[in-house]
Write a structure and sequence with these properties.
By secondary structure, this protein is an alpha+beta fold. Helices cover about 30% and strands about 25% of the residues. The two termini are about 45 Å apart. It binds flavin-adenine dinucleotide (FAD). The site of flavin-adenine dinucleotide (FAD) has 34 residues, from α1 and α2.
């Protein structure tokens, strides 16, 4: 082993977790190994390139979003709060803005500014970033970690695994860290795609992709039984459904489930009452005018009318009872059958990973292998939203 291949600390993975760890290790020279030719590839596409890096709410709000894992994260979230994150970037010259939903972004709306701030902090902390260096395996021999890459081996006293999850593999996050952790004795909760869009069977709306609905009600059905009702913003994609309402609930979906969307955002009874009342009072009005007032986007309303009534101009009074019932069904509970729940290719996050009960929540050090630490998405996130 060459002399310059030994480092006090090696971090594997130059995503936000690895970079932030490297930026905060001041006392020793740290080697940061990244397999891609450039660091932070996933960070750069986060928040559609704008990087929603934290939330402005009270720390107690975070509790609701981490489910059972909140207990594990409690100490970490207390010791470095959302305000601390905002201050950290501000001190590096990155001002932040908060959108009406409390999401915090760099004021420039450029994820690259967050990445640059992290890279400068790493450099100031004396970390050595080595890109294009893929770690293949790790061993621990006599209290020293041996890290084998495609271009040579390195040793260290401390090792931090920051290899991310398994989603968007083109960014470099291919789940290698699970293999490394397992080889050192850790258990891995089966990784699966989270925050993923769904692909719909016999999808009819490819040409209407991009149409979105704000905070509509969705019911989820399985084997003709209603499982749950939730609400959220939804976007029609080329192959199915996406948007926060889908992404945040994807972990509950299975292929074959039916999602019924209330695209009119009106209870069925109210929709029917308004329909009947208008058909009785101004029956000559074309059906398309009625749908216009429900707020359903025009192209979609036209699509539904042609499908159900076969016309956009038929007067309301001439709509049969059966057509009315079908129309109400389409507008208040449009059915989509899930063919596939995302995939690692399209999921924004990975659920599962290195199990938390083998990690010390105060330090993120392994409870099985001394001086081995974990940070970021490589750890099991369980049910996130
Ligand atoms: C489309 C999209 C949008 C998102 N938007 C947001 C958002 O707005 N806000 C938010 O908080 N989160 C968002 N996320 C999630 C966020 O990007 C991740 O949670 C975050 O990047 C995880 O950070 P990490 O450092 O743990 O892992 P990663 O960012 O995945 O970084 C891991 C790094 O390790 C490297 N690596 C892996 N294996 C090896 C190896 N064998 N050798 C060397 N290097 C290796 C990888 O190349 C990678 O650079 C989004 C994700 C996606 C995909």
């Amino acid at each position: 082993m060459q002399k310059d291949s030994h480092f006090p600390v090696i971090i594997i993975g130059a995503g936000p977790a690895g970079l932030f760890a490297a930026a905060n290790i001041q006392s020793s020279q740290t080697l940061l190994l990244e397999k891609k030719e450039s660091p932070g590839r996933k960070l750069l596409i986060s928040g559609t390139g704008q990087c929603n890096f934290t939330h402005a709410g009270a720390m107690s709000d975070f509790k609701n979003h981490f489910g059972d894992n909140y207990q594990f994260l409690r100490k970490a979230l207390k010791s470095f709060t959302n305000q601390d994150a905002i201050e950290f970037f501000k001190a590096k010259g990155v001002n932040c803005i908060t959108d009406p939903n409390g999401k915090v972004f760099p004021a420039s709306l450029k994820a690259a500014d967050i990445l640059n701030a992290l890279l400068i902090s790493c450099r100031n902390a004396g970390a050595v970033l080595q890109t294009g260096s893929s770690v293949l395996s790790i061993q621990k021999e006599n209290d020293i970690f041996v890290v084998n890459t495609d271009s040579g081996s390195y040793t260290s006293e401390y090792l931090i695994l920051a290899t991310g999850g398994k989603s968007y593999p083109t960014t470099g996050s291919t789940g290698d860290g699970y293999r490394f952790a397992a080889s050192l004795g850790h258990s891995i909760a089966e990784p699966h795609p989270a925050l993923a869009p769904v692909i719909v069977s016999n999808y009819e709306f490819a040409e209407l992709a991009g149409i979105s609905f704000q905070n509509i009600e969705i019911t989820q059905w399985r084997d003709n039984k209603k499982l749950r009702t939730f609400s959220g913003d939804i976007v029609l994609t080329h192959t199915g459904l996406s948007g926060p309402g889908i992404l945040n609930n994807a972990r509950y979906f299975m292929p074959g489930d039916e999602l019924k969307l209330n695209i009119s955002n009106m209870p069925e009874s109210e929709f029917e009452q308004q329909f009947v009342s208008q058909a009785n009072s101004t029956g000559k009005v074309p059906i398309s005018s009625f749908l216009k007032n429900t707020g359903i986007p025009k192209n979609l309303a036209n699509f539904i009318l042609l499908k159900v009534i076969g016309s956009l101009t038929r007067p309301m009074a001439e709509i049969s009872k059966l057509q009315r019932k079908t129309l109400i069904n389409h507008c208040c509970a449009y059915p989509f059958i899930i063919r596939q729940v995302g995939s690692f290719k399209t999921a924004m996050a990975t659920a599962g990973g290195v199990v938390l009960h083998e990690i010390n929540p105060s330090s993120m050090e392994s409870l099985l292998v001394p001086k081995l630490y974990f940070c970021g998405e490589v750890m099991d996130k369980g049910l996130i939203s």
